[in-house]
Amino acid sequence: MAFVKKLVEKVEKVSKKQIGTGTINSLLPEEVNPVLSFHYGIPSDFSVLAYDPVQQILAIATRNGQIKLFGRDNSQALLQSDNVAPTIFLQFIHNQGILLNVNSQNQIEVWDIESRLLSHTHAFNIDITSFAVLQHSWYIYVGDCNGEVSVLKFDPTQKKLLNMPYQIPFSKSYGEGAREIPVTNILLQPMAESRRVLIVFQDGLLVLWDLQSSEVVVSTGKGAQFLSQNEPKTVTSACWTCTHGSKVAIGYSSGDIYLWSIPVLSNENCSSEKRKSDASSAQNVPLLKLNLGFKLDKVPIVSLRWVSGDSKTNRLYANGFCDDPLYHSFQVLILNEATEARTIKLVLPLTESCISVEHISLSSDKNKQKQNTLALLLKSGHLCLFNDLDIERYLVHSQSKSPPTLPSQIMVSVPSYNSGVTAAKLYTPNGSVSSIEDYSTLAKKYPQFLSTNAKERDIHVGCTSMGNLWKTKSLNITGHLDGTINFWDASCPLLLLIFSLKQQNGGTNDSSASPITSLYFDAAANVLISGDQTGQVRIITFKKDASENILSFLQAKPGENYTIRGLKLPGAIVCISRNGNSKHFAVGTDKGLVVLIHIEEASILYQKQIQGQVASGIISMQFEKFVLEGFEKNVLLVATEDSSILAMEEDTGNAISPNTVHTKNPSRTLLMNVLEEGQGLLENQNVSTQNSFRETTSKNSLLLLCSENAIRIYSLSHAIQGIKKQVNKKRLESNSCYASLIHSLSDGIGLLLVFTSGKIEIRSLPDLHVLKDASLRGFRFSKNPNSYTSLAASSDGELIMVNGDQEISFFTTLSQKDSYRHLEYLSAVYRKDTSLQEESSYTINSPKEKKMGLFGKVMKDLKGSKVKNNDDNGTEYSNAKDFEQLSLILEAPNFPVVQERRKSSEKEEEVELSIDDIEIEDEQEVEESKEKNKAQQFTAFSKQKLGKGLQALKGKLKPKTDEKVNPGKVKVEEGPASSVDQIKAKYGYSTSNEMNAAKMAENKLRDNVRKLEDINVRSAEMANSAQTFSSMANELLKNYEK
C-alpha cells in the first residue's frame, strides 16, 4: 500500500509539472495570520450578566467560554478563554479592572480587563454554589455544596487569587451533626459589610455570621410556621431589601417570596435594652409573605433585586423562570419600610422568560444625566432593555385615575441591521479616507448600542461624505430582507453608513419590497446592479457629480443624481457577472436561467436554460477570452449549484461543447474562479477596475471549483472543451459555507474557507495545503430569515461575518497592520482615570472628622483608640478602619484545627511551622517600633494572637508524642544515621536528634515566656505613665480655664 501511495503522489507531481502549475504565486505561511480584529454586538448563547457601576462596564458571559464587555463611547471587547465551559457566576471588583468568572468546572478565572488577558485560574475540587465579592477590598467569599464558606484574596501585584486561612465550617455555622447542605447565597450585611455575613442555605436556614468572633449571631428562616406547610421548597434567590441590613427577601423554588428580619450591628455604647431588642427582632417567623402569583404556577424565583429610591419608590424586581415557555413572569413591586395593605406591582410585558438581570447606567456624555436601565437576558438569546424611570413612573401613578402606559421594551440589535442581511460585498479599493477624524468625534455620530433613548439609537445616514464612497479604504455593501441596500464605510469596525437606497420602481417606492439576493458594484463605471428574490434586476447608475453634495443626493429623486432601470426575470437572482471590456453583464437565477443583458439599454440579448445533474441554480459565472483552434472567442463560464461546469459563447449563448464537467458526488457550489499563470487574483481585486473578464488565457491556466465538502482544480483549457482533467482535489472534513480568493501584497494567492461550525481555513494554491486556521466561537451558519448569516471577504483578506441582527465579527486573515481605524480606542473599555463616581447603594459616606488639638492627638496615640462614626440610629458602618481590621481577621486562622480538605486544588508551597516562627521582640526592638506605630504594638501582642501561636506550636510538637502510640506509622527519613538511632526509630522511640530538637524547642519556649513577662511589666509601666500624663493634662486644662 505504501508503494502505491508513493506512486500516486509521484504521478500527481508529474501531472502538475506538465500543465505548468508551478508558475502560480501562492501565499506563504508567514503571510497568513487569521485573527479576530473586533467583535461588535452580542455573542450568541449567553447566560450571565455583571456590571461595574464605576467604570460603567457591562459584561455578558456565554456558555462557551466567551465574555463580552460593553463600555462607554461604544467601546467593546471580547474575552475568550481556552476552557470552553459555561459561566455560573460573574462579578467585577469595582473600578479595579478585574473581572472574576466562575465556570461550571469550578474554576475561578481572573481577567485583566485593561490588557484583555486571563491572568490567573484558581481551581476548586468541589462544586461552587455561591460567590460574593466584598467591594472596596480584595476579599471574596465562596460557598460550596457541602455548606462550607471559604475566603479568597486577590493579590493585585501577582494578579492571582490566594487562599485565606479564615473559614466558616458547616459544623459551626449550621450546627453539629447535620447533613451537608449547599450554600445558595452569601450576602454582606449593609452598614456592616466588613463585620457580618448572611449565609443562606438551600433548605431555607439563614445564618448571620460575625467575622471577628467567628460565631453565629442569629439563625432564622426555618420556623414552625414555615415548616408546617408540608411542601418541598428550596431557596433559589435572595437579596437585601433595606439600606441598613435589617430585612432580607428570600425566593423559593415553590414560587414563594418571604421577607425575614435580621438584627443589625449595634453600637458598642448602646444600652443593653437596645441590644436585646435587636436580638429579638430576628424572630423565627417571616415578616411578610408576598403574593405575586408565582406560587400558583409553581414558578421558581431565580433572581431578586432591590433598588433603593426615595421613601415611596423602593422597588423589588422578582424574576420567575421556568423551562415551560407558558409559565414565566418578571414583576416589579413597590416595597417600602411601611407595609401597605395592597401590593402595587407591574408585570413586564415579556414574551419569553428571562435568564439574567442587571441594572446599568451608561452615559457617554458627562454633562448628561445618567440613564438608569434595566437589562434582561432573554432565553431566545436577545438582550432586552427597559427605562427604569418609566417603570418607577408607572408604579407611582398606576393607582391614579389616568394610569400611564406600560413601559416599552427595546430589543438590542446591531444598528440598521434590523431587517437582516441577505447579500453582502466587501471591497478594498486601495484608497484612503480623505478626512481622518478623531474617535471622540466619531463616537458621537454613531448610535449608542445600549440605550433606551430613541434619538441616541437612530443611525445617522451620511455620517461620512458621499465622496468617501470612492475614496474609502474599505467599502461594505449590504442587501437586506426589506429590499434596502446600504453602503458602509468599513475602514472602522463601527461600520459608518454612507447612504441607503430603498427598492424603487419607476420613481416610487415599491410597496412589495423583496429581499436582495445578489449585488454587483463597479465604481469605475459608477454602476450598482442588484437582484432580488422575485427576479427583479435593477441597474443603478450614479452621476459623476453625485458625490459632491451628499444632501442633494439624498433629497434628489431618481433621475436627478442617479437613475434606476429594471427588468423582471423568472426566479430569484443569485449571481451577477460583468464583462468590463463590453457593455454586457450576465445574470443567473435559481431556476438555471442564464441571461445576457445590455447594461445601457437594459435589454435582454439572450437567455439560456442550463440543466444540471441534480440542481440547476446558477451559482457563479465568469467571462474569459480563449483561443480555440486558432480562433479567439469570448467565453462565459457557468457553474451550477450541483458543481457542474459549462462553457458558453458570449455572443450567441451556444455551448462550446455538449459535454459538461461534473463530479461523481454532487454538492453545492460555493466558488468558481480562474487561476491564471503568473497572475494574482481575477475577481474582487480592485473595486475601481473590478470585472469578471480577462484577456486571452494561457494553456497553463487552471479552474478552481470549491463546493461544500470538496475543493477541485481542473485544467481550464480542458474544462472549456467539456473534458474533465482534474489536477488536484481535497475533500473537506466538514461542510463549508463560504469560499473566497485572497491575495497578499506580494500578489500571492490563497483560498479562504469558512465552515458552518465557525472554523476558518486559509489554503495554498494550487496544492491546497492548510497554511493556518482559526475559529470563531459561537458562530453557526444559518439561512433562517429571522437569523440570517451573511459573509463577505475582500481581496486582501478582510472578512466580515454578520449573525442576524445580533453580532458582527471582523476577521483579518493576512499579516498586515492598520486594517481598521480607531481599533485601539474601540477596544478600551477600562479607563484608569475614572474616579469613584458611583458607590454601592448600601454605602454611606462618613462625615468629616473634626480637627483635634494637641491633647486629643496625644491621648489618641496613647490609648490606640479609633474614632467611630455613627449614624443617627447609632449604627456603625464600614470605613477604612473596618477593612484594616478585616484584613487582620481574614488573614489569620480562626479555628485551631485546620481541616485537611481545602477547597482549592491549587498546589501551594507548604510552610512548615516551627517554634522559631513565634517572634517576640526584645526591649530594644520595642523601643524602635514604638515610634513607628504605637497603636499596632498592643495588637501584635494580643492574647488572641499569642493563643493562636501556642496552639500552632502545640500542634507541631504533638506528633512527637504520637509516634510512640502508633509506631507503625513512623517514616524514617533517608540520610546518614547511627545504627542506634535506626533501631530506636524502628521500635518507635525517639532518636537522639529528636530529643535534641525537643530540648531546643523547650528552651525556646521558656525564653519566649520570659520575654512575655517582661512585656507585661513594661505594658503596666506605660499604662501608669499614661494615667499620670492624663492627670497632669487635666490639671493644666483646669488652670487654663481659671
TrEMBL record:
SMART domains on file: WD40 (SM00320)
Ranges annotated as biased composition (Basic and acidic residues): 959-974
GO molecular function: GTPase activator activity; myosin II binding; syntaxin binding
GO biological processes: exocytosis; Golgi to plasma membrane transport
UniProt keyword Protease present: no
Cross-referenced CDD domains: R-SNARE_STXBP5_6
Region Disordered, annotated ranges: 954-977
Signal peptide feature range: none
Domain called Lethal giant larvae (Lgl)-like C-terminal: residue spans: 680-822
Protein name per the record: Lethal giant larvae (Lgl)-like C-terminal domain-containing protein
